[in-house]
Structures are given as C-alpha cells and as structure tokens.
Amino acid sequence: MSLDQFLVWILGGGSIVAVSFIFERSKWFQEKLTSEGRKWVMYASCVAITFGAYSIQAFVPADILATIAPWFSIASGLFYTIFISKVFHTSDKETTDQG
C-alpha cells in the first residue's frame, strides 16, 4: 500500500479500523474507561486521525510526500508481514492444540 492509498483509506473510514485495532489491544482502554468513555475516545481519535490524514494530503508538498513514500512502504510492508505471521502462528497453535 502506498502512502497515497493509505491516506485515502484513512479518509474513507479506515481510521475506525486503525483506531480499533490499536485500542482494543490496549489494557488502559479496556480497563480504565467506561463504555461511554471508550465511545468518546474512539470518536475523538478517529476524528483526529482523519483530520490529520486530510491535512497531510491538502497541505504537505508533493515532493515531501514523495521523499517519505519509500519509508512508508517499508514500514507498511513490515506491518503486514508481522501481522500475517501472527495470524499464521495463532492458526497453527490452534490446529496443534486440537490434536
């Protein structure tokens, strides 16, 4: 996924997926906040990330985005690799545990 594609994804609702992915794994989010508090933290975080993505697209010069793009590609590739390996590890563990 390129940097431009990622920003479009965030603007198209991906911020909800990204924030949920992070917060649902955060102990403080689960234990310290009430249901109502979690709702508002999720909402505010999604708004902030979406506004941030829009600001990057609207105000950061194209040459700077082009300079950052290879670094983003490397980081996103590593994220995918780590995430997929964890999915396979969990799947293999469940299969092994079943017999």
Task: Report on this structure.
By secondary structure, the chain is an all-alpha fold. It contains 4 helices and no strands. Helix 1 (3-23) runs antiparallel to helix 3 (35-59). The longest helix has 37 residues, at 62-98. The chain is flat and about 55 Å long. The model has no long low-confidence stretch (mean pLDDT 91).
Defining traits:
99 residues; mainly alpha; flat
Please tell me what the overall shape is.
flat
**What number is the mean pLDDT?**
91
Percent helix:
over 70%
Percentage of β-strand residues: under 5%
As residue ranges, the low-confidence spans are none
- What is the helix tally? 4
Number of strands: 0
Estimated radius of gyration? 17 Å
Biggest sheet descriptor? none
String of helices and strands:
HHHH
Structural category is mainly alpha
Measured distance between first and last alpha carbons: 38 Å
